[in-house]
Amino acid sequence: MRKMLIALLCCSLITAGCAPVMIAGAASGTSAAYDDRTLSTMYQDEGITHEALGLIKDNPELKATNISIITLNGIMLLVGQAPNETTKTLAYTTVKSIPEVKKIYNEVTLAANTSTVTRSNDAWITTKVKTAMLTENGLQSTQVKVLTENSTVYLLGIVTTVEAEQAVQVTKHIKGVKKVVKLFQIKKAAPVKPADTNTKTQ
User: Fold this and answer.
1) 3-class DSSP state for residue 79?
2) Is 80 left (phi over 0), alpha (psi -120 to 50) or beta?
3) What is the mean pLDDT of residues 150-163?
4) Cα separation of 45 and 43, whole Å?
5) What gap in Å lies between CA 86 and CA 58, rounded to an integer?
6) Which of 124, 128, 150 is closest to 141 using CA atoms?
7) Checking DSSP bridges between strand 179-182 and strand 103-110, what pairing results, if any?
8) Can you tell me the distance from the alpha carbon of 143 to that of 177, in angstroms, rounded to the nearest whole number?
9) Which of 84, 141, 144, 175 has its CA 20 to 30 A from that of 181?
10) CB under 8 A, 24+ apart: contacts of 32-35
11) pLDDT of residue 200
């Protein structure tokens, strides 16, 4: 089953680039099982992302930018390129107007837009990271959102300290990754149940 999920994940990510994907058959169940957000929060996060991208696209002053966005639990990440500090700030204030946004990480850099080749490479790195996480014991790839920009990998998720470290170590060993940025929301690990020491007497 795990091998089938890996294959499906690779195919989905390659065809969809950096867009969110749902794995056929086990997709919604897998996502819900390993994502600590409620379904309403998940839908809201997707809505926030689409609204933010629309606001940036419709703003003529932001036409020169190349910005990607993901949202998790109301926390938004902006990555990409802007020609100057004024434009970078404008992108931030534009998406900040969305009421449901709790916090914004503005990781947009002041640089020329990346090339098509670079973006394709970023998509491939994301695919490799997600696939590697799927094979890691104790870590589910659906727990962590992965976004790669110019070979820098951003990791978001609601995870334990141990899971966060696992995700980082997996990502660091992927060929082509230059830097890993952790933007996790840390949760408490589930308490370990004590072993049942009761024995039956004859």
Assistant:
1) strand
2) left
3) 95
4) 5
5) 17
6) 128
7) unpaired
8) 20
9) 84
10) 33/140, 33/142, 34/140, 34/142, 34/143, 35/142, 35/143, 35/158
11) 53
Number of domains in the chain: 1
Q: What is the pLDDT of residues 18-52, one digit of tens each?
A: 433 332 222 222 344 457 788 999 999 999 999 99
Query: Considering the entire predicted model, what is its pTM?
Result: 0.77
Each residue of 48-77: pLDDT tens digit?
A: 999 999 999 999 999 999 999 999 999 999
Average pLDDT, the chain: 83
Domain residues for the domain of 161 are 2-19+37-186
Average pLDDT over residues 9-25: 39
Residue 15 counted as domain residue? yes
Nearest C-alpha neighbor of 150 from the set 48, 13, 18: 18
Residue 29 in any domain: the answer is: no
**What span, in angstroms and rounded, lies between the C-alpha atoms of 135 and 143?**
13
Query: Is 114 part of any domain?
Result: yes
Helix count (H) and strand count (E) of the chain? 6, 7
Instruction: From residue 103, give the alpha-carbon distance in Å to each of 6, 8, 93, 149.
Output: 32, 33, 12, 20
Q: Is residue 156 part of a domain?
A: yes
103 - beta bridge partners?
A: 75
